[in-house]
């Protein structure tokens, strides 16, 4: 019971924001229309049940005129039914896409809010495969919530509409057993209730493991898909390393999990289907068995029996709603759990950026240096990595940072960029200063070359002539004429070309602070030197901090900083300058 209550509370938490959002009037209007149509459909079912009585009596009495008028009546009612059914589906789908659009936009906004997506990864597997949660899960949630909610509403209304009818019919067709008449008020209602409660309890006993199995199925499917995408993204390396057998094996194992879980799903579904199918078939004849003795004892007409059977099956169907939707309910609960986990993952990532014991990135007045104040960098498990007490990168100065692999150079850049929360102390950045980080492999979005170069800016911010000029300056004249070409540039260009493109990006954006994390390491020394000269010439006021291992880089920096071990961690130390430009 507590489980049901907490699931419903979670559903309410996930579903209600849309109906209070800026799109609330459209959402509420569509929902109201869909509900109204559902109620009208229940009303039509009541009319059809009453029609059953008149129609079968007309047949039994061989009354041609009533037969014809009942056929016409049926056609008119059914025409309304068709109209309502069509519009219910249409409006339902309309509501689904609006709701889904709102949820997806909302999730995208939160996920891509200030590096939440990155912090979620840092926290481990709390919310695996966010892509699946924002696609399949949101779609299924919206679809199932509407289907199950409307189904429940329809069952309750059906129950209310048919209950009094069936109660009355119980008196008209009293219970006949072995030639004796028993007068039990509303016995048909009680029979429907007992029959349904039994069915519901048994369904739950057989079907409850489905929730967990469904959850795992969706997870394994997403995992398999994600690994396929990784192979596609790294296909060149896999081909060069002849890693296909290893990949095949990895994918086989991943898909093996899909199959294994699917078999568990099949077995459980088989059991539940065997039960629900028997239950549903038994439901067809059960009302006839109950009222047939009264019919054969000539207490009721054929029409009365048919109407009773129809009313009984409506009431029993409503009571047994849970049985009929058990499979969907299990799937829905798995989806609700997954979206709940996703929301919790985003909340935890965002809390990580707000908690007190984190690295604080603060804006300071003026346009001076980026300063590190009592900074301690830690790994996610709390292990100390690097200490930097009162250290600054002065305005306009070019600093080369060196140190052993794994010392924490890139992590220091992450902390300065404000995306590494683990540690203490502060990074002070001049208010409104522009920072740019360039890694070894710059990210180039799939699309036009113009978009890729100016990222994260927009193409219209930089006219084509300027982009072409910068591309030529960084040694990519052959790309200058291909600005409108669409491609997967990270795959198409050599690493050296990608690094040149990264420098072109920096020249266009002209940040006040430029952090180069081995951003030219794939180029030969003369090419690297040419790019550093270009940076010095075009961005004279920019503070440059480079991570690099080549001694030739020394010439282009005024200051050397090295990371040296000090006990269990590294510290930053100004090195004696060997050569200066
Ligand atoms: N997300 C993470 N989770 C756990 N440990 C991490 C994570 N990111 C980095 N580390 C660890 O932090 C340490 C510092 O990594 P970092 O990339 O900053 O080193 P680096 O000095 O830039 O090395 P290199 O010169 O090889 O690039 C490494 O031991 C690395 O394994």
Automatic annotation (TrEMBL):
Keywords: ATP-binding, Membrane, Nucleotide-binding, Transmembrane, Transmembrane helix, Transport. It is a multi-pass membrane protein. The chain crosses the membrane at residues 30-51, 71-91, 146-167, 187-211. Pfam families: ABC_membrane_2, ABC_tran. SMART domains: AAA. Its main location: membrane. Residues 29-331 form the ABC transmembrane type-1 domain. It is found in: Cell membrane. The keyword Cytoplasm does not apply. GO terms for molecular function: ATP binding. It comes from the Bacteria. Residues 370-580 form the ABC transporter domain. Involved in beta-(1-->2)glucan export. Transmembrane domains (TMD) form a pore in the inner membrane and the ATP-binding domain (NBD) is responsible for energy generation. Belongs to the ABC transporter superfamily. This is ABC transporter ATP-binding protein/permease.
């Amino acid at each position: 019971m507590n489980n049901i209550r907490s699931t419903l509370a979670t559903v309410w938490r996930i579903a209600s924001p849309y109906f209070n959002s800026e799109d609330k009037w459209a959402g509420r209007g569509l929902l109201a229309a869909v509900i109204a149509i559902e109620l009208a459909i229940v009303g039509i079912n009541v009319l059809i049940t009453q029609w059953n009585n008149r129609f079968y009596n007309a047949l039994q009495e061989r009354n041609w005129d009533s037969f014809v008028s009942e056929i016409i009546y049926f056609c008119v009612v059914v025409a309304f039914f068709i109209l309502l059914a069509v519009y219910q589906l249409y409006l339902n789908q309309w509501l689904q896409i609006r709701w889904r659009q709102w949820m997806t936009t909302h999730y995208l906004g939160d996920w891509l809010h200030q590096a939440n997506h990155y912090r979620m990864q840092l926290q481990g597997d709390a919310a695996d495969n966010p892509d699946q949660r924002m696609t399949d899960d949101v779609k299924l949630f919206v679809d199932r919530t509407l289907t199950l909610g409307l189904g429940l509403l329809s069952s309750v209304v059906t129950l209310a509409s048919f209950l009094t009818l069936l109660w009355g019919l119980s008196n008209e067709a009293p219970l006949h057993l072995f030639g004796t008449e028993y007068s039990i008020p509303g016995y048909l209602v009680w029979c429907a209730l007992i029959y349904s409660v039994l069915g519901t309890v048994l369904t739950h006993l057989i079907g409850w493991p489905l929730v967990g199995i469904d959850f795992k199925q969706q997870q394994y499917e997403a995992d398999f898909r994600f690994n396929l995408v990784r192979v596609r993204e790294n296909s060149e390396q896999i081909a060069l390393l002849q890693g296909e057998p290893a990949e095949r094996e990895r994918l086989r194992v991943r898909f093996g999990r899909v199959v294994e879980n699917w078999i568990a799903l099949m077995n459980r579904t088989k059991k539940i289907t065997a039960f629900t199918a028997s239950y549903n078939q038994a439901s067809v004849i059960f009302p006839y068995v109950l009222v047939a003795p009264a019919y054969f004892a000539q207490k009721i007409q054929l029409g009365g029996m048919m109407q009773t059977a129809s009313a009984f099956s409506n009431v029993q169907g409503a009571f047994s709603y849970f049985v009929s939707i058990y499979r969907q309910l299990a799937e829905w609960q798995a989806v609700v759990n997954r979206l709940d986990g996703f929301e919790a993952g985003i909340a935890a990532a965002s809390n990580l950026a707000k908690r007190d014991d984190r690295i604080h990135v603060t804006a300071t007045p003026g346009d001076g240096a980026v300063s590190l104040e009592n900074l301690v960098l830690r790994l996610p498990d709390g292990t100390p990595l690097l200490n930097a007490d009162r250290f600054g990168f002065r305005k306009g100065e070019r600093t080369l940072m060196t140190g052993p692999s794994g010392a924490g150079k890139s992590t220091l850049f992450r902390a300065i960029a404000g995306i590494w929360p683990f540690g203490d102390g502060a990074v002070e950045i001049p208010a409104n200063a522009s920072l740019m980080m360039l890694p070894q492999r710059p990210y180039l979005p799939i699309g036009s070359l113009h978009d890729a170069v100016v990222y994260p800016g927009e193409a219209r911010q930089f006219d084509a002539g300027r982009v072409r000029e910068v591309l030529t300056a960084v040694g990519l004249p052959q790309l200058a004429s291909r600005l409108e070409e669409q491609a997967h540039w990270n795959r198409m260009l050599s690493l050296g070309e990608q690094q040149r493109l990264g420098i072109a990006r920096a020249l266009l954006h002209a940040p006040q602070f430029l952090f180069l994390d081995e951003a030219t390491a794939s180029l030969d020394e003369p090419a690297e030197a040419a790019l550093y000269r270009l940076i010095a010439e075009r961005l004279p006021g920019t503070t440059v901090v480079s991570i690099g291992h080549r001694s030739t880089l020394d010439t282009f920096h005024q200051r050397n900083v090295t990371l040296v071990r000090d006990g269990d961690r590294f510290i930053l130390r100004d090195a004696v300058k060997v050569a200066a430009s």
